[in-house]
Amino acid sequence: MATPIENPLYPFKESPSQTAGPYVHIGLTPNFCGIPGVYDKDLGTAMVTDKTKGERIKLEGRVIDGGGNPLKDALVEIWQADADGIYRGRAEPEFSGWGRCPADAETGIFRFETIKPGRVAFPDGRLQAPHINVWIVARGINLGLNTRIYFEDEAEANAGDPVLARIEHRDRLTTLIAKGKAGAYSHDIHLQGPQETVFFDI
Amino acid sequence: MKSNQTQIANFFPRDRSWHPKAYTPDYKTSVLRSPSRALIAFGNTLSETTGPAFGHDTIGPLDNDLVLNFAQSGMSAIGERVIVEGRVLDERGQPVPNVLIEFWQANAGGRYRHKKDGYLAPLDPNFGGCGRTLSGDDGAFAFRTIRPGPYPWPNGPNDWRPAHIHFSVFGLGFAQRLITQMYFEGDPLIPRCPIVRTINDPKAIDQLTARLDMSASAPMDALAYRFDIILRGSRSTLFENRLEGN
């Protein structure tokens, strides 16, 4: 329950996070988990239409724990700009910019069919490299994890990206870059361990 | 045509000592699912301050009524009927209007309608356990459901979750995205739960504990619980690009 706390400037604190738990699919993708008839379809399953402008891409990957095991109960959401580098949201009927995918219950694979995002300006005017913003929740994750996915075939843009430039340990950059080309990319996200993916405090 | 791109300034940084830490070993699954390296911080860009929006066309007529939205015609879910109502506000106390709120829960006996839930308490044939709604212009939301039961889970040898409802909330920017859980005032399982106790500050736990709200109850129908959701505040844009003020 929200009650004012002892901060004279701002009376409220953000509601603390809790894990999404193992049954997150009941709430966010009920049709996927066998609860039909409440919603017509699960939100976030279709990002593009035939009319969407831009290069079609398929992106698939897994979320992997510190023991090397793919999470079979993770839920991944993505948020990205359109082909022109504009974040549209609902203003653009042909492109949602947002997708949601539960990991496959057997393989742990998540898949998105979307478009390659255009470049978005950083606050100082420099252009960021094409990227997809990622949010991961699951049993055992207490606060959703934020990361980004960049593209292997955008090496030049990646080299000048202001966010990638913030990462001091340069050997970790590869953990943010999806492998592939010609519209098919794969990208595993490692929660912990020697291959640990870079996560952001945004 | 303005979008969120020009309306939302940078968000207040998250207070990550108020939120649960990633590695909380009494909640055993967190041990292998917590990053061990430090998070990389950077200031908000458009990628963080914008986010998806959902219209009223998203929401069906029974989406905010879990008593009826999975029930056979003429039937309703079994359990203690409750209304959950509150507001979505930001850390400045401003309403956050027109954002999607999704919720899910076990039935009155603590059983989830999910193939991985093997608890021996039975499913309720008239209860699905999912719902959603949009906050109003004043940030207010409400839905009707049945009070979920506690349930055991394989963490410690005798761990039970308190009665709870899971919440997923969108803000105006993707960096406000939040999932949390609502607990019920007076539940003696709350202070015993390793998931609740991933949160260190008792005031933060109290913020997730809904209060019985007799004023909002529906006489002869349903009790009410009040649960406000607070999202990250956002900073003024005054000195960045809108010198006319805001």
Keywords:
heterodimer, A: 202 residues, mainly beta, nine-stranded mixed sheet, 2 helices, 10 strands, 5% helix, 25% strand, globular, B: 246 residues, two-stranded antiparallel sheet, 3 helices, 6% helix
Task: Briefly say what this structure is.
The complex is a heterodimer of chains A (202) and B (246). Chain A is mainly beta and 202 residues long.
Q: Please, how many helices of chain B?
A: 3
Average pLDDT of chain B works out at 93
Main pleated sheet of chain A:
9 strands, mixed
Nearest-integer average pLDDT of chain A: 94
**Residue fraction in strands of chain A:** 25-35%
Strand content of chain B: 15-25%
Total helical elements of chain A: 2
Topology order of chain A in helix (H) and strand (E) letters:
HEEEEEEHEEEE
- Multimeric organization: heterodimer
